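Hello Y.,

Per our agreement to keep a running log of every chain we model this quarter, I'm adding this entry. I've kept the format consistent with earlier entries: sequence first, then predicted structure.
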Amino acid sequence: MLSWVVIFLIIALIAGFLGFTGVFVAAVEIARILFFIFLILFVISLVYYLISGRKPPVP
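Predicted structure for the entry above:
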């Protein structure tokens, strides 16, 4: 999910550089929303593993 944030951030930077302000604003908002969703899911996962006492899975 973090890769989507980076992709939309790159799209926003390119659109802003080329002067497409509408695309720039939309891409920034999508990247911001995805970042906060990622952050919330990370915190929930961290709290879950701390409360349950289980170790996170090793990739």
